[in-house]
Amino acid sequence: xxxxxxxxxxxxxxxxxxxxxxxxxxxxxxxxxxxxxxxxxxxxxxxxxxxxxxxxxxxxxxxxxxxxxxxxxxxxxxxxxxxxxxxxxxxxxxxxxxxxxxxxxxxxxxxxxxx
Length: 115
What we know:
Blueprint: H1 2-18, H2 22-27, H3 40-43, H4 50-69, H5 72-90, H6 96-113
Helix pairs in contact: 1-4, 1-6, 4-5, 5-6
């Protein structure tokens, strides 16, 4: 179980930090304004694509869980929980420290039930 937990933590670190670009970090947040330099006259009216960006970000996390555990069910749990946790963080219900604690708790639960 500890080995799977550590592997899941590595997957989380890759997905939440190394692979999350600034565009994804801002784009998944429905509260964020347009990116710096965005000109509607040039680029057109900004579309609310945060749902797609958030889903793509959460799919990366789900993919890590699927690769590590081999379980589509656990990958779906990871997708849904990550989406909800990040959504609430972006809406300022809590800060990044609570956000990361919640992610680690979900990862621990996944590690326990995957064995």
